Structures are given as structure tokens and as C-alpha cells.
Amino acid sequence: MASYAQHDSIRFDYLIHVQSNNVALWILDLLPIVFAYVGQYSSYMIANAASLLVMEETKELRSYASQMQMQANLAATHDHLTGLPNQALFYDRIETAFRESSGQTNASFAIMLLNIENLKEIQDTLGPTSTDLVIKQLATRLESWAAKRHSIARIDSGNFAFLLVDCNKDHVESLAKSLIKAIEPNFITNALKLTLHPSIGISVYPNDGDDADMLFQRAGIAVVFANKSPSGYSVYTSNMDEHSSKRLTMMGELKKAIARRSLELYFQPKLEIKSKKLLGIEALIRWKHPQHGYISPDEFISIAERSRLIIELSAWVIEEAFTVCAELHKVGHEIKVSINLSMKDLLNPELPDLVAGLTAKIGIDPSWIIFEITEGSIMNDPSRALIIVERLKSMGFDFSIDDFGTGYSSMAYLKRLPVSELKIDKSFVLDMTSNDSDAIIVQATIGLAHNLGLIVTAEGVEDESTLAMLDKMGCDIAQGYFFSKPLPKTELISWIESKLD
Ligand code: C2E
Ligand code: CA
Ligand code: CA
Q1: Ligand 1 in contact with 268 (CB < 6 A)?
Q2: 271 alpha carbon to ligand 3 midpoint, in Å?
């Protein structure tokens, strides 16, 4: 345009000429370069901002993930209420103490177990919230007593453990006395002054044992003696074993039985009373001892609960029960499998993860499983137990209150527990046709459970007249010898198939 206006034609040399004399044209020519540069700069800025944003978000995600990881790690190694290390971490520390002591001739350390004898009484009188407050105060006191020198852990409700380093038999008594002194001053809750009654049991390495289970077990035996001693503490001596030798031998044998997988799982049918339809089975563990024959689970479960054995035992029961459940569903028997959980299971923060892993590995649906828990096992440490129950519940597992009526019943907790079934203990059912007060208890329990929206199962149904009475009372499900004793898997399958014929 400018070339045409000045020279009446457009030629290359005219173009150069007008261009050199016209600043505006220079600017116009430079514009694409400027735009390209600015465009690149702004896209660089945008890309930079975006990558910063992505980095920020990733950082946030990473820190969230590591926070979650830390929380999970903490839950696996620490007690939820007090923040103290738990039993698992404590065992790790004992193992470390063993490693450090091996090869050293004079190495010595002690395990000191502290039991608060009147904690159950406090819990029954003041309820769980106030008890938690007392436990927290106690934990703070114990931690400051241990003063980073000795490792400390909360084992369960009123049981704490200490690993006393560089400590032989001569030192332990003065340490026990000083710990008792630390617990002496009152604890305060709801303006009430409380005194705790400690019992302290001690075992010393290397005299009293050379593995963690043995030292722990023997410190536990000493606690039982401390309970009766006016001093409030007792150091393990070998004559204490006479009382508990049967238990100790049995524990060793049970450990072997679990390792060799020589335990068996039996199953007892549960039938709907109205339709006589098979609704489910309860898994019940059996141990056939090479010398003593069948030993009742009532006897050996309590022994296993005194050590980490119960964790292995429950893991085995859960895996086995899930496997049988999957097999039954595969062949079209759509029934539920009930699994008993012990008190220690409800304090094991790793249980939900273990269950999640087995669920996926074996391929079962959580809705096929009912975990049976007792009020006693919940009440031992309600806040910890509830966390585990809620986690399993959120995965889709069902819960049942077992042995109802035998223990300390807290309606407040019963209402809070996410259970769908209540099992009336066989001690009320066995004689209900001849014993009026048992019949009244059974009737009242059925009414209570139904009002709470729960299904009621009666266990220990041995005859037809009991079944007829339960039917009249509106009970939903029955389990007992009248239908079948607990059976090994193959016999159970034959039993189910004979019912279908
Ligand atoms: P529970 O959970 O109350 O189980 C019911 C018990 O009643 C079982 O005893 C069962 O065999 C018995 N029973 C069933 N029907 C009748 C009947 O009609 N009459 C009579 N007299 N008894 C009947 P078992 O198998 O000896 O188990 C005893 C306890 O041991 C169980 O009581 C449960 O608390 C515990 N237990 C059993 N297996 C396991 C397990 O795998 N894990 C855990 N943690 N505990 C278990
Ligand atoms: Ca049960
Ligand atoms: Ca029972």
C-alpha cells in the first residue's frame, strides 16, 4: 500500500525504500515475531504454572498418601487411645534386646508386666469414657516414669509392659517399688478421686527364658502371684511354674499344632425355625492332642489368648472358614459362615487388613460371613474394639453378639454395635423347657433383640420340645445337637445333601 501510494507501483526496490523510511511498517513487520515470542512466552508461563500446579497437587497427594501410610503404620504399631507402642512393637523391641544381648556374657534385661486389678470395676461403675480418661492419665505417668530409658507398651485395657534395660534380678525389685509409688497418687475423673491397684510381675533374661514368648508368659505368671502378694509385685521363680506347667506345656504343643496345621475346623448348621431351611453354619475349632485326645476350645483358646498365638490361630480359622465358604457357594449352597472372634482379635489392628487380603485371595463376598463377638470381648477395651468392628463392617461383614446374657451387658454398647444377630447362650436354652426363669430370660431376650431390629439365634437346642417352645416365643434361628453336632467339612456336605433329598 505504502509503495503504491509513494511510487504508483509495487516493486521490490520501492518496497525496500518505503520500508526503510516508515517506522510504522517496521512495527507492523515485527508484530508477527513479537506475537510469536509473546505467544511462546505466555504458553511457557501457562505450561510452567500448570506444571507447578501438577507438582503442588502431586506433592499434596504424596503427603496425603504418606500421612495415610503413617497413620496405618501407627495403627499397626501403636495403641490408639494412649499413643503408646502396642504388643507387636513391644515384641519387636524384645527381639532387638535379644539380638543386642547375644554374644555378651553379662547382658541382662527384664520384662515387667503391670496389671491394673480394679480397672474392670472402674469400667463397670463409671463407664468407658471415664475409664479411657484414667488410662490416659496412667499412660502419661508410666511414660514419664520410664523416662525414655525403658521401653513401654500398652498390651490391652489395664495391662502394660516394660522392657527394663541393663537390669538384673537385684535391680528389678527396686524398680517395681518405684513404679508402684508412681501409681499411688490419686487419678481424677468426673471430679472423683480414684486409686488404682497395680499388680506387677517380672521375668529376667537370661535366667527366666531365652525367647520373647517365654519371658512374657513367665512375667504373666508372676503377675498372678503379685495379685495375692501384699507388696503388689512378684519376681518369677521356677516353683511358680508348677501351677502353670500344664498351661505352659499346652502352649508349646498348641504352637506346634498351629505350625503343622494339625488343627481342624468343624461346622455346625443353623436352621430357620419356621421353614427348617439351612441358613448358615458356625465354624468351631477342634484340637486333637496326640496324648490327651480332643481338647475343648474353651480350654485352649484362653491359653492361646495369653500370647500372640491367638493371632496365628484366628488367622488360620478365618482362612479355613473362608475357603470352605467359597467351596459351598461354588456348588450352589448359598449359606452364611459364622466365625468366632476372640477378645485379642478385637484388639489386633492388623485384623481388618488380614481379612481384606484373605477375602480377595479366596474370592468370597463379605456378606457371606458373620463374625461372632461377645460383650466381654468388646467391653475389655471398647474404643479399640469398636474401631476394628467398624472397619470390618464397612467392608461388608456382618456381626453377631455371641453368648448373650452370660456377661456384663451394656445396653448402651449393644445399641452402638453394628450387629445384625443376637445369639442366646446355650446355658439358658438347654433347660428352658423345665426351668421357668431360663424360659423367661429367653423370652425377654427375644423381645429385646427384635425391638433392636436384630435376628435371634438360640444355641444349644437339643430336642424337639425346646425347638417348639422357641418357635412359639418367636425365635428366628436354632442351632444345636437336635439338628446336628459340629461336623468336619466332608460330613457337613453329606449332611447338607441329605437334607436336599
Ligand atoms: P460358642 O461360640 O458359644 O459355641 C457354641 C458351643 O456350643 C460349641 O462348643 C458347640 O459345640 C456347643 N454346642 C452346640 N450345640 C450344642 C447343643 O445342642 N448342646 C450342647 N451342650 N452344646 C452345644 P465348642 O465347639 O466346644 O466351643 C466352645 C467355645 O470355644 C465356643 O463357644 C467359642 O467361644 C470358642 N471357640 C470355638 N471355636 C473357636 C474359634 O475358631 N475361635 C475362637 N476365638 N473361639 C472359638
Ligand atoms: Ca459362637
Ligand atoms: Ca455360647
Answers
A1: yes
A2: 16
Could you name the CATH architecture of 268-284+310-500? Alpha-Beta Barrel (3.20)
Ranges in the chain annotated CATH 3.20.20.450: 268-284+310-500
Determine the pLDDT at residue 25.
46
| pLDDT tens-digit readout, 57-104 | 556 656 656 666 666 666 788 998 999 999 989 999 988 888 888 777
Residues ≥6 apart with Cβ < 8 Å to 231:
177
Atom of ligand 1 minimally distant from the CA of 285: 38
Ligand nearest to the CA of 372: 2
First-to-last C-alpha distance (Å) of the chain: 104
Between these two residues, 429 and 410, which has the higher pLDDT value?
429
CA dihedral angle for residue 309, residue 315, residue 318, residue 320, rounded to 10 degrees: -90
Nearest atom in ligand 1 to 342's CA = 44
Mutate to test the pocket of ligand 1, among 309, 316, 340 (most ligand atoms within 8 A of CB): 340
Q: What is the pLDDT of residues 392-413, one digit of tens each?
A: 999 999 999 999 887 666 666 7
Contact 410, 108 (CB under 8 A): no
Architecture of domain 87-238: 2-Layer Sandwich (3.30)
In contact, 381 and 422? CB cutoff 8 Å:
no
What global pTM score does this model have? 0.66
CB of 348 closer than 6 angstroms to any ligand 1 atom: no
269 lines ligand 1 (CB under 6 A): no
